[in-house]
Amino acid sequence: MRKLRALAIFGTLVLILAGCTDEEVVFPTFVAQTLSDQRADGDIGFSLDPPPDGTFTISQADATGNVIFGLYADGTEFRAFLDFPLDGSNGGDAVPLDAVILAADIEIFVNDVALVSTVPTLLDLVPFPITGLRVTDFDSDPIATRSPFDFFPSDIGGSVLIDVTSLMAEAQRLGLPDLQLRFLLDFVPGASGVVEIDDGIDLRAPLLTVEYQ
């Protein structure tokens, strides 16, 4: 697993209250990390050709080595899906069901940002099957969505850290076994462009880091 930070225990923090001589010990803080499950990761593309129903194309990351999202010039839209098991089933660290989430982020490696200077992005918490994406997952109702953010051409060839604390906290509140995320273009006026996320090389695989008590 790449870029493992200080795992297991950050250590017991000691808080000395102002004006007091007694020390108060707060709960220890732990860190869990897990890579996304490449077998469940993938993307779905939708084109209006042929009309009126259009065509869906589903790709799984274990075949392509990447996931993509955004809007091509021909009008084809892609949405990307990443699955992070929270029970340690893919060799990562488990997050206990009674844990209190303090912070969470995902680190992804950006292979490409194409066609535009800025790709406005939404990130949903959304359930989908780990056995393979379905057409209905393209536009299924999200459980929660974090605030919009952007990708830039300067991100190409490097890692990007994305705060997913609110989504992880909601997944934990619901007792979900996986943190399942959907990347899609935020359709603000003039929005377009395509982002390719690496999902084939261990050193570049999407990584979830959760800090909890």
Describe it.
- By secondary structure, the chain is mostly beta strands.
- It has a single domain, classed as Jelly Rolls (Sandwich).
- It contains two helices and 16 strands.
- The chain has helices at residues 61-64, 165-173; strands at 8-11, 14-16, 23-25, 29-35, 42-47, 55-60, 66-71, 77-85, 101-114, 119-125, 144-145, 149-151, 158-163, 178-185, 193-198, 207-212.
- The strands form two sheets. Strands 1, 4, 5, 6, 7, 8, 9, 10, 11, 12, 13, 14, 15 and 16 form a 14-stranded antiparallel β-sheet that branches.
- Strand 7 (66-71) and strand 8 form a beta hairpin.
- The radius of gyration is 19 Å and the shape is globular.
- Residues 6-21 have low confidence and may be disordered.
Question: How are the SSEs ordered, and which strands pair?
Answer:
Elements: E1 8-11, E2 14-16, E3 23-25, E4 29-35, E5 42-47, E6 55-60, H1 61-64, E7 66-71, E8 77-85, E9 101-114, E10 119-125, E11 144-145, E12 149-151, E13 158-163, H2 165-173, E14 178-185, E15 193-198, E16 207-212
Antiparallel strand pairs: 1-4, 2-3, 4-16, 5-6, 5-8, 7-8, 7-15, 8-14, 9-13, 9-15, 9-16, 10-11, 10-12, 10-14
